[in-house]
Amino acid sequence: MISHIMVAYDGSDGSKKALEEAMAVYDRSGMQRFTVAHVFHETVSEVASEDKLANMDTMITPRVDGIYAAHMPLSQDEKVTQTHEVVHNSADQIVADARYAMETRGIHGDVEILEGSPAEALCEYAESSGVDLIVVGNSGHSGIKKFFVGSVSEKVVKHSHCPVLVAK
Q1: pTM
Q2: Is residue 130 in a domain?
Q3: What's the rounded Cα separation, in Å, for the pair 39 and 88?
Q4: Total number of domains in the chain
Q5: Per residue in 22-64, pLDDT tens?
Q6: From 156's CA, which of 36, 44, 79, 162 has a CA 20 to 30 Å away?
Q7: Using one digit for the tens of pLDDT, what is the confidence trace for 90-129?
Q8: Radius of gyration of the chain (CA)
Q9: Is residue 126 part of a domain?
């Protein structure tokens, strides 16, 4: 019997569909536990290339007299700190979105933030937590990128100890 469902959620369109499908299955089935899992796997180099950090090379520094000096370069430590703040804020927003979706459906569940390779982290958590069904979104990768990178959903299907539902 399936009593614990886990949905992989990263805020993408595919994961939003997975969350909707998981909540529908949960509503119909009488399961006891519902878990949303977000895998924190963003590196500094990945985030630094995002538009959010486009202006991170310099900062405006006020002087004592209130006149602003010209842009001053940020040190590497300041860039890393700002990058980590963006990553954490992004994860916080994703978790908040998942909680809101659950609350609007009246689902009381857990939200877990995992670290590492997404497929590995999801499969390891599912096995150690007694998850009976994993719901993932379709990756959205196609063509050459899918060939070289693969998709998290494919890897979860291949390595999971339990059934996996791929929402399209």
Answers
A1: 0.72
A2: yes
A3: 12
A4: 1
A5: 999 999 998 999 999 999 875 544 444 444 444 545 444 444 5
A6: 44
A7: 778 899 999 999 999 999 999 999 989 999 999 999 999 9
A8: 20
A9: yes
Instruction: Identify whether 25 is part of a domain.
Output: yes
Pair of tokens at residue 116: 């590492």
Per the domain annotation, does 11 fall within a domain? yes
Pairing of strands 68-73, 110-115: unpaired
Nearest 5°: the CA angle 78, 113, 163 is 145
The position carrying tokens 């963006």 is 86
CB crowding 85-117: b at 16 or more within 10 Å, else e: ebbeebbeebbebbeebbeeeeeebebbebeee
| Enclosing domain of residue 9 | 4-42+75-167
For residue 165, give both structure tokens. 């539902």
* Distance in angstroms (rounded) separating the CA atoms of residues 136 and 117: 15
Cα–Cα nearest to 154, from 129, 118, 116: 118
